Amino acid sequence: MNHSPRDSCEFQICDIWQQALGVAEVGVHDDFFEVGGHSLLAIEVVVQIRRRFGVDITAGELLEANTIAKLAEIVRRGHRETPASPLIRLRGGDPDLAPVYGLPPVSGSTVVYVRLMQALGRNRPFWALQSVGLLPGEQPLTSAEEVAADFIVRARAVHPDGKPWHLLGYSMGGVYAYEVAKQLRAAGETVGLVGLLDTRPTIEAGADNDFALQALVERALKIEVDLDMVRSLDPEARAELLLKEAVAAGTLPADFDSDRLLRMVDMYQINLDAGSAYDPSGYPGDVTLYRVLDRAVESVALPYDLDWTARVGRLEIRDVPGHHYSMIEPGNVETLAALVDAALPD
């Protein structure tokens, strides 16, 4: 079967991929993340497509339209037929298998689930929710209950009839997965795996007022700046400085705009506030906690169950290698994926 570009549009997107990925050849049906793509390269590809074709495509759409052939269809249309959905299909997979849904962590991004999705066996369908508010024109949801209810409405449109709901949440995303499970169970739905990826049930309000900014700077942008100085700037000046430093460090492409960066900063704080206000009262069902073995990055000592046992009907704990941030990276995510696979019955 011929996987070469079939027209000028596919040829140009193929060229963009080859430049971003540093490869000599790529097929129009190759999956972006299976041929070496990752979140930062996804942003670069989006920037190049916008520049070359003048089409407003998002990184979320690249996650869903993850081949050259699918991207070319969007570019040929020249516009979105419908507004981009925050519920993104990372993998179509085997329709006979119940999907897995990943709920957004504090960053609001779906990219944390890409490597886990790739490592899961049996070609299982995988959807991930991006926090509402990351895209222009979206009004952020400010409570865990709102996020869960909104997700359920969106997911019902794609969830296969009669299949159980399998939910995963990395870090604070586990709080959202837990609340989704509560609402689905209350509605009489069959809830399968509720997997919390090193999630704590509570976040102390005001424990670290700089956490959102620090997390963005150190973990997402990976730059070294004086946080006190950055905090003293007004939002626009702060975004311009962070954008300049991130571009210089190579963690953001040169065409990434400050408005998007401002929304990233805001989303960290919105999700943190939602987590700190949430009351994780009892869920009568089963919950699985995937707990990292390396606790070195924790600022305080935590109980082995991270305070979940008394809040759920039955808690299972599965130890996974790595620390909180490396558990989803290559070398560790394979073990995590194998444990998740073993917990999915169908």
From TrEMBL:
Keywords, sorted A to Z: Phosphopantetheine, Phosphoprotein
InterPro entries reported for this sequence: AB_hydrolase_fold, ACP-like_sf, PKS_PP-bd, PP-bd_ACP, Ppantetheine_attach_site, TesA-like, Thioesterase
Carrier domain: residues covered: 4-79
Transport recorded as keyword: no
Record has Phosphoprotein as a keyword: yes
Name this protein carries in UniProt: Carrier domain-containing protein
Originating organism: Actinoplanes ianthinogenes
Lineage, uppermost ranks: Bacteria, Bacillati, Actinomycetota, Actinomycetes, Micromonosporales
